Please model this.
Amino acid sequence: MLLSITTTHGPAGDLGYLLHKHPDKFQSFNLSFGTAHTYYPEVGDGRCTACLLLDVDAVGLVRGRNPDQDFLLAQYVNDRPYVASSFLSVAIAQVFGSALQGRCKDRPELVTTPIPLEARLDVLPVRGGEGFLRAVFEPLGYEVEATHHPLDEKFPEWGESPYFSVTIRRTVPLSELLTHLYVLVPVFDARKHYFVGHDEMEKLLAKGEGWLARHPAKDEIARRYLGHRLSLYRMALSRLVEDEEPGDGDDETPANERAEQRLEKPLSLNDQRLGAVVAALRASGAKRILDLGCGEGKLLRELLGDRQFEEILGLDVSVRSLEIATRRLKLERLPDAQAKRLKLVHGSLTYRDRRLDGFDAAAVVEVIEHLDPPRLRAFERVLFECARPGTVVLTTPNREFNVTWDALPAGRFRHADHRFEWTRREFHEWATAVATRFGYAVRFLPVGPEHPEYGSPTQMGVFERG
Model:
């Protein structure tokens, strides 16, 4: 398994200082699972490449152990010696430990200096495909180049392999690049060669400090890094949410949401959206209301101000958002009669939750576009089949309208965490199919000023149970 790191930062010897490995030397290091070799195949005035070659002793790893009874050769015949995995993370920590920790005695000013870096991994097993690969690296600012390798060119009927040769590029301090590789390489196939316990969770939180809490794929990264151990994943996620720091401007609103709000502010679109949702809920005659994905409580405040709504339940997957909602709504200061009308709960929209049963109506405001498409199907069943309120008021961005905003680059979504944004046709097709499948009727309403060609910025569907 080979990792190569290339820089065009000069002089070329700077990479040797940072890695604490002399460019003129071939060095070998004995590890518990094999041998790591470091060498420099390229050292020039304008370009330098360092390589970490990992030779995993697959036989030595299992010698003396009881083999798998289902497949007697499984511990000997596998891809571990040939692919980037948790073995590489351990090798980075042991061979490039000083660079990983950001130490350089001879050239300390280099440690925090962003330099142009290119890292190539041959070969990386990516469970989730190229889409997941890009979803992990691109939010960190990396340019990603991936070559997919077939399982066997002579036997295409065997299907696609999970193997990629991957190159990532970014101008960044070397310690930051190594930290990202150290954490993320084992995430792609979620198979660690050692026991995953609380120490691994602490390692993830320590190495993820400053970037993981803000990563849009932090849930999946944490789940895979921790070997799908649910208790550890939940603990790690709750601490990551707590570690998310307030941004500038609004002291509690995340930066991505502030960017979206700045984009929409000239239209006062958020106010118009909330007003349209409350009006639709009021017209339905509903008294018991769900606010699913309630966030920091903007709609909840509007609902509390209307006496028609006698019971309101707000649910969100983010503990941090619920804490902010509690403060903003000043729940501890509300009169008892008012406080009894509102309840905030932590939960997911993709798992059946009996606390959501029996409500007259549900509001789902700018939520579905944050769900990965595979999870959207689960959300549909949770809401329309299991909870099954009489009315559902659902809003989502209209992608066609995006071209009218000069501040939004072409092809970009309004919010960095959006997994998709639908055209009017795509939304109508999805909503109509859902309504038909679960026994609802749906009507569509525009929200915000309508453009003659691109429609309104927000599209709203009102589902009513038949």
